[in-house]
Amino acid sequence: MNILFIEKKHLAEVFVGLSKWGYLESSKFIETKASPTKLTIPTITNHIAKETATADSLADLTLLDLNQRIRSCTDCSLCKSRTKAVAGTGPSNPLVMIVGDFPGVDEDAIGLPFVGAAGQFLDKWLDSIGLNRYSNTYLTNSVKCYPASEGAPDLSQFEQCSKYLKVQVSRLKPRLIVILGQLSSQTILKTNQEMDQLRGRFFDLYGIPCVPIYHPAEVLRKPELKRLVWEDLKRIREKLSIL
């Protein structure tokens, strides 16, 4: 997996009203790699070492203990803006793990991911390919705290939370990881490629195949994207059939 830093910040995606689902014939999925690295070797080495050392300090925690550690985390300034940290929800042996960017105001209020309009839309996506958050899909975010007035989290805040995502993946061992939206895709995959270049492509994350798709909040805002999402969902269903 290539290691890249984001060159610019992206605004948070906006929740708007629900939109009717559409269909389009699927196309053959293509396995590809991310764009060439732009960091020097010393920078890459130091970055990986820092992330691994932090994740290793949590390696012996159970998922329950890890969730408690997330809820009490004070590693960055977002602990001051949150009401409740949002660790994740779903079965302990999921087929699929969904990773969004960061909690919204609804999630912050109750401490659960994807409970607003975008979450309801996501549930329809999952249902269309035989998945759901209660039996076979685990939901979480890259960043675990609501940024409130700070806007979208910055790269350092994503990096602070990366240790939690790494241990979650290690504990849950999903067959496939689905990354929602450009912000989360760029930070997790460490690339500056745009979403139209990333969507529907399969990458490797901690030894598990992962695929970026559009965030449901963006699709609510731009209904024309729903046909592309449907193509990607069918790629996901096809990929799961051979894993």
Number of helices: 9
The biggest sheet amounts to:
5 strands, mixed
Shape by Cα distribution: globular
**Overall SS class:** alpha/beta
Give the uncertain stretches in residue-range form.
1-53
Helix and strand succession? HHEHHEHEHHEEHH
Which range best describes the helical content: under 10%, 10-25%, 25-40%, 40-55%, 55-70% or over 70%? 25-40%
| Beta-strand share of residues | 5-15%
| C-alpha end-to-end distance | 20 Å
Structure, described:
Residues 1-53 have low confidence and may be disordered. By secondary structure, the protein is α/β, with parallel strands linked by helices. 40% of the residues are buried. α1 crosses α5 (155-172). The chain is globular. The two termini are 20 Å apart. The longest helix has 18 residues, at 155-172. It has helices at residues 41-56, 63-71, 105-110, 117-128, 155-172, 182-189, 195-198, 216-221, 226-240; strands at 96-100, 137-141, 176-180, 203-205, 208-213. The protein has a 5-stranded mixed beta sheet, sandwiched between helices.
